[in-house]
Design brief:
The protein has 175 residues and is mainly α. The protein has a two-stranded antiparallel ribbon. Helix 1 runs antiparallel to helix 2.
Length: 175
């Protein structure tokens, strides 16, 4: 991929991440079905961009910076609680990829809101670094977020996508 193409792709993934974070922040103002539809639209796009743009594609000039988090515990909990309230009884789903599931006779429940908040945190950090550096650190911020994607939130995204799909097409509790 050319450098211009990569730059455009990084701008696209930044826009998707910003849209995702905005939807999470505004969950309390949305209808449940609208929120679920928005997540089902954004999550696959975000997954694809973080999957498809490889670290080899992204050229950095020197060492990769590591940035501190912009999301503190109170902000994380606020985001999670708003989504949890919106989803109500539909917030809980059975987690089949939990490591402890191998050793358990009982199902392990997970929270859609917590999963979405777990994705929100690295994406919010990513877009915050891009915004605070006027885009100068987009490559470094992307690489840090991609590292987090590969180590934990890609699986979370896939799992929560399945749960959201269930709400959309199998029907969840009525609001």
């Amino acid at each position: 991929m050319t450098e211009d193409n990569i730059r455009r792709r990084l701008m696209t993934v930044t826009a998707y991440a910003a849209d995702y974070c905005t939807a999470c922040e505004r969950a309390g103002d949305m209808e449940r079905d609208e929120f679920v539809d928005r997540m089902l639209d954004l999550l696959p796009r975000i997954y694809w961009e973080f999957f498809d743009i490889t670290t080899e594609d992204v050229v950095t000039l020197g060492e990769t910076d590591y940035f501190s988090t912009y999301v503190d515990e109170d902000y994380y909990d606020s985001i999670r609680r708003h989504m949890e309230a919106l989803l109500g009884a539909d917030d809980v789903f059975l987690e089949t990829f939990e490591e402890d599931m191998k050793y358990s006779d009982t199902p392990i429940a997970a929270s859609i809101a917590e999963s979405l908040a777990d994705i929100f945190q690295p994406l919010f950090d990513f877009i915050s670094v891009v915004k605070d550096t006027d885009g100068d650190k987009i490559t470094e911020a992307y690489l840090q977020c991609k590292e987090d994607f590969e180590s934990y939130w890609s699986q979370t995204l896939c799992n929560v996508l399945r749960a959201l799909n269930h709400i959309k097409y199998k029907g969840g509790e009525e609001q």
